[in-house]
Design a protein that fits this description.
This protein is mostly helical and 73 residues long. 75% of the residues lie in helices and 0% in strands. Helix 1 packs antiparallel against helix 3.
């Protein structure tokens, strides 16, 4: 399964990328929707992306753990 330094778990990388996309959407709402007074849209976007940062941190930790295990042996 491990073939040198380029071995990756594509599913975890995809999940991390999706979580990062949700984090970016959350920041977009704070930077653009709130100042325009679009409170309902901002609240909807905030509620939809509430778990983005914890998910990104969790998946990043899983990737780090899998990579450490793969390269230790």
């Amino acid at each position: 399964m491990v073939s040198g330094a380029s071995a990756r778990l594509e599913g975890l990388d995809g999940a991390r990328g999706f979580a990062m996309l949700l984090v970016c959407l959350s920041h977009f709402g704070d930077a653009y929707l709130r100042p325009l007074g679009l409170d309902r849209e901002h609240e909807l976007l905030t509620d939809s992306t509430l778990a983005a940062t914890p998910a990104f941190i969790l998946v990043s930790g899983l990737v780090l753990g899998c990579q450490a295990e793969a390269y230790a042996g």
